[in-house]
Design brief:
The chain is an alpha/beta fold and 326 residues long. It has helices spanning 2-22, 26-30, 44-56, 74-86, 103-111, 139-153, 172-187, 203-216, 231-243, 262-269, 284-295, 318-323; strands at residues 32-38, 63-69, 91-94, 116-120, 133-136, 160-166, 191-198, 225-228, 254-259, 275-278, 303-305, 310-312. Strands 2-1-3-4-5-11 form a 6-stranded parallel β-sheet, sandwiched between helices. A 6-stranded mixed β-sheet has the order 7-6-8-9-10-12, sandwiched between helices. Strand 1, helix 3 and strand 2 form a beta-alpha-beta unit. Helix 8 runs parallel beside helix 9. The longest helix has 21 residues, at 2-22.
């Protein structure tokens, strides 16, 4: 008899444990589930962008974040989006690696009734209803900021030899910044792009391609400007140029960079980078305000751009550096 009672007690305990585990915390049901596909971890900018998202979409703030790092592969992003659809998340947030190839998978999300928010770079869609909102930067305007500085920095009656280092090909950051430079070269007949390379937004790739280019020259070319489409490219280019004896800075080879992360601002303060064009990675709060508006049944602007500026050496004060969080 005692054995029977002991068995019954164990069974009751197990039953309690199982039902206790299966009971979702009532709070959990209230969490907004976000499926987030991040491009990768290729740059300082990207790390700051990811940190901004993770800092906002926490359980304390009322969210369950399902975060996927695509490691710079679009197919990984598409796979992740399909997983988010299967898991019936409340929102899908995508930082797309490139502009093209999204129509089919975003159609699936649309059919599943899941709003898709595109952040940072843009996607090229024939059916724009597939995207609830795009929150990011105007990359062409960033490039215009750089070429306006070039037009002021260099007199119009001198030849300008430019080396152009592009970001990840097909990304809207690369497309916009490139187009602005090419348009400016068209309207400045003495500007000459002597070489264009793919730096893929990374320091290592840029060092490699710049080193390879300079090593292939029988006579080292005069380079007036290196137009780097992000900070990590600038770091790689500066290292390679230094190894071949180039004098970096005013009066020598002037480097332009995009993002304005802390390390780039420090290079700018030293004169190693002549112009830092800001590209704000801290998009988490903007994404959250969009989601809150949607939760409240509000209609959101489909295109929302962040404010950005640019910095030259004299702008880089300790106060400015202390004021920045990335
Ligand atoms: C720009 C972003 C770019 C950054 C790079 O919004 O997409 O990608 O300029 C990053 O640093 O790799």
């Amino acid at each position: 008899m005692r054995k029977l009672i002991a068995i019954l007690e164990v069974l009751v305990l197990m039953l309690f444990m199982i039902t206790g585990c299966m009971d979702q915390d009532p709070q959990d049901d209230d969490l907004i589930v976000i499926g987030m596909s991040q491009t990768g971890a290729e740059s300082d900018w990207r790390a700051a962008n990811t940190e901004s998202m993770r800092a906002v979409f926490t359980e304390e703030n009322g969210y369950r974040l399902i975060f996927d790092d695509a490691r710079q592969q679009q197919e990984n992003q598409i796979t992740a989006i399909r997983r988010f659809i299967q898991e019936q998340v409340d929102y899908i947030v995508v930082m797309p690696i490139s502009e093209y190839g999204w129509e089919a998978v975003l159609e699936e999300a649309y059919d599943a009734g899941i709003p898709v928010i595109i952040v940072d770079r843009m996607v090229d869609l024939t059916n724009e209803r597939l995207m609830t909102a795009h929150l990011g930067a105007d990359f062409y305007a960033e490039g215009e900021c750089a070429v306006s500085w070039m037009e002021q920095e260099f007199s119009s009656n001198r030849n300008l030899n430019i080396v152009h280092i592009q970001g990840t090909l097909g990304s809207s950051a690369q497309i916009g910044r490139t187009e602005a430079l090419l348009d400016a070269v068209m309207s400045n007949p003495r500007w000459n792009i002597i070489n264009t390379m793919d730096g893929d937004f990374t320091q290592a790739k840029t060092y490699e391609v710049m080193h390879e280019y300079l090593a292939s020259c029988t006579v080292l070319p005069a380079i007036d400007v290196v137009y780097c489409e992000n900070d990590n490219e600038a770091f790689g280019a500066i290292r390679a140029l230094g190894e071949f004896g180039y004098d970096i800075g005013v009066g020598g080879t002037e480097v332009i960079s995009f993002d304005a992360t802390r390390q780039a601002l420090l290079y700018c303060r030293e004169g190693k980078i002549s112009l830092c064009v800001e590209c704000n990675p801290l998009l988490g709060p903007l994404v959250e305000s969009c989601i809150i508006a949607l939760e409240n049944g509000e209609v959101v602007d489909q295109y929302q751009y962040v404010e950005e500026g640019c910095f030259v050496t004299n702008d880089i004060t300790q106060e400015l550096l202390d004021s920045r969080s990335y």
